[in-house]
Specification:
CATH superfamily: Phospholipase A1
Number of domains: 1
Helix content: under 10%
Number of strands: 13
Number of helices: 4
Strand content: 35-45%
Strand order of the largest sheet: 2-3-4-5-6-7-8-9-10-11-12-13
Structural class: mainly beta
CATH topology: Outer membrane phospholipase (ompla), Chain C
CATH architecture: Beta Barrel
Order of helices and strands: HHHEEEEEEEEHEEEEE
Radius of gyration: 21 Å
């Protein structure tokens, strides 16, 4: 495992590629550029590519081009019922704890937006195949829509921009599994609030993903970027939210997908969290081509989620709760 300082150094070296990716592509010889047929944009979602290849565009057949908007995490609108709500957020940092209780309800709505775009590929050398650089942005808001006496405020909103570098890493694994990619990302998360409710942190994340038939398994390990005591809104957040994440997805059939996400502090603690997701397609997409196996990929989906643990929001990084949400989603996990 690379030391955190080495990971950070590598990621910082990758970031300037954003500025000169256009020049790199103009200089590439014809055989290293994309073979994607722009006249048939549906080809990049065809059945010839695996789930992870389509998601990260790891091959020529799954390349959908650059500077187009894709989904990242689910884009969803859900009704949430929880066993608790954080009416008085606190932090170990001085001046970062609420001084009074706000009478929020445990029932609320959650709005999540999450998109990404590929901003470069083939950046390092042709030997790495279709390596790619992505920019992603996710936003999650909890809306106290049922508290009419409080004018239905937004309880909290988290903003999460991320720069992601992905390398195709095709290798056979025991049990019929296939390693598909590895990568690094630079992640910032903040809630955009002022004191005493300001929360934020930065991470360098190492990741990898594998698949087998209708199963997908991915893992992440992150190192928090250190901050000075006076700038740290949430000391020890990684001891609550976690230092690693394991995600498993199972596509039961065309209409139903299950996902399980587990986060752990990796320090002998029972903190962290787990999340179970179920997506069910509610209608066909308008794609007329029967050869596309993602026949319902653009369809509206029922999204049911059960979450328990810490870090559902940044404001709740050290507050445990269990919640059930039911809603609609436009993009799979």
């Amino acid at each position: 495992m690379l030391a955190p300082r080495h990971i950070a150094t590598l990621l910082i070296a990758v970031m300037p590629c954003v500025a000169w990716s256009e020049a790199v592509f103009k200089a590439l010889p014809p055989e290293t550029t994309s073979t994607h047929n722009t006249a048939n944009p549906g080809d990049c979602r065809s059945a010839s590519s695996s789930t992870l290849s389509k998601f990260w565009e790891l091959e020529d057949a799954s390349d959908c081009g650059r500077f187009n908007i894709r989904g990242y995490r689910p884009i969803s609108l859900s009704v949430v019922a929880a066993d608790a709500v954080n009416r008085s957020p606190s932090s170990e940092a001085a001046g970062h704890s609420a001084t009074s209780n706000t009478p929020y309800q445990t029932q609320e709505m959650r709005i999540q937006l999450s998109v990404r775009t590929k901003i470069g590929q083939g950046l390092v050398n042709p030997g790495l195949g279709r390596d790619s650089l992505w920019f992603a942005y996710s936003q999650q808001s909890y809306w106290q829509v049922f508290t009419a006496d409080m004018s239905r405020p937004f309880r909290t909103t988290d903003h999460e921009p991320e720069l992601i570098y992905i390398v195709p890493t095709d290798a056979p694994l025991p049990g019929g599994w296939r390693l598909r990619y590895s990568g690094l990302s630079l992640n910032h998360q903040s809630n955009g609030q002022s004191l005493p409710l300001s929360r934020s942190w930065n991470r360098v994340i190492a990741m990898a993903g594998m698949e087998k038939n209708n199963w997908v398994l991915s893992g992440k390990f992150w190192q928090r970027v250190p901050e000075s005591a006076e700038n740290d809104d949430n000391p020890g957040i990684e001891n609550w939210v976690g230092r690693a994440e394991l995600n498993a997805g199972w596509r039961l059939n065309t209409d139903n997908t299950l996902g399980l996400t587990v986060r752990s502090p990796l320090a002998g603690s029972d903190r962290g969290s787990w999340r179970l997701d179920w997506f069910k397609a509610l209608g066909n997409s308008n794609t007329p081509r029967p050869e596309l196996d993602q026949a319902r990929s653009g369809a509206l989906r029922l999204h049911v989620q059960l979450f328990s643990g810490y870090g559902d929001t940044l404001l709740d990084y050290n507050h445990r709760r269990t919640l059930l949400s039911v809603g609609l989603s436009l993009v799979d996990w």
